[in-house]
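Lab notebook page, bench 4
Experiment: in silico fold of construct C2
Operator: M.H.
Input chain length: 81 residues
Purpose: comparison with the prior construct
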Amino acid sequence: MAKYLLLKHYRGAPAAINDVPMDQWAPEEVSAHIQYMNDFAARLEGTGEFVDGQALSPGGKPIHEWLEIRPFLDMPPTITE
C-alpha cells in the first residue's frame, strides 16, 4: 500500500539563518540536528501528539506542482492502488 507524507512549507517566514545544504554541514552540526529532531519527537510523544516517524524511500515523487494547480483543501487527491 502506498504511503504519503504531507509537508508544510511556511511561505512568508523570515529568511533562513542557515541555508547551507545538509551534505555540506560539519559532522557535529548533523549530529546536533538529529539530536534536536529526536528530542522534539520525544516531546511530541510525551504530549500524545506524535503520530509516526519513518524514513522516506528513494524514488518518491513530489507533488508540489500538483498542489499549486489544485489546492489540497479544495479537492483532495483520489488515492488508487
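Observations: Residues 7 and 41 are 16 Å apart (CA to CA). The longest helix spans residues 27-47.
Next step: discuss at group meeting.
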